[in-house]
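We emphasize that the prediction below concerns an isolated chain of 357 residues; any contacts that depend on oligomerization or on bound cofactors are therefore not represented. The input was used exactly as deposited, without trimming of termini.
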Amino acid sequence: MKPSPFPEIRHVVDFCVVGGGLAGLCAAIAAARHGAKVALMHDRPVLGGNASSEVRLHIGGAHGANNRETGLLEEMLLENLYRNPTRNYSIWDSVLHEAARFQDNLTLILNCSCCDLRMNGPRIVSIRGWQTTAQTWHTVEAKLFADCSGDSVLAPLSGAEFRVGREAASEFGEDIEPAEADRKTMGMSCLILPRETNRPHTYIPPRWAHKYPTCDDLPHRSHDVRKSNFYWWIELGGEQDSIHDTEGIRDELLKVAFGVWDHVKNRCPQQDAANWTLDWLGFLPGKRESRRYVGDYMATQNDVRAEGRFDDLVAYGGWTMDDHHPGGIRWPGKPTIFHPAPSPFGLPYRSLYSRNV
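Result of the prediction step, given as a token string:
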């Protein structure tokens, strides 16, 4: 085999984070501020994952009065409020970029997809990623690794145990799970953002957009432009492979998204949408569910309902237990069941690491 014609860069650090969504970004910054030498490898040009300009999901993980995100998230949100009062998503991207790029002890490696790793027994000792923009290989050697990639890319590469889909109700005594286990997941969404203007706009959908000609074609989907919340119910993929089928699911979601806006503007407006225009549509699907590492403990529905009072509590959740139907927009019933949960509820350390790697 001839040697690679592409450059290779080697990084030696204490802690390597794969994935620059909010989880990975906060992990990397926290470790760097505590004195560790850190590398953060992320496969996109912007940080934030589902909260970036590419997907545009808001940050808000806790219901209830006086419940809000604190710590690093609050720090970045306050900086964004100061610099970005009009809430421009490109400026929000720059706030997250600045937080990592100018953090001492932190090396940021963007547009780089982790595609290989090296093990020593049950431990990962290095990972390797391909940086598309610079056509460069990056190898990162570290003492510890955090997989914040969303799709848990280090799991199949390392042999770490993971699960996909829904457990049977009987396995953990959960009454909101199906009777039999399956590999169905919650789907993904290509969000859309409408904008109100001071004059009417016509909308001509692409020829390949799906058509929803009557109000009965999208039951249980509120599409009031003032209360749409990004039309999160434009969702597909839960009955397919949430990783390997992503490209095809994205193509189908684009047809749906343009068709939904045609439905809102031209076929079944729930209010006067004449002055509203389609300002943005996401081409990167926002993913809800993928591989899940198996830790020493698996937190369940029952733990959440009991407020998660663990001895090794290290984090909190505060959202309802949302159950998006795997059929997504093809499901004629309500798209989501919002199973109530206390806010906040605790999460244990034992659930946050691989039990075999």
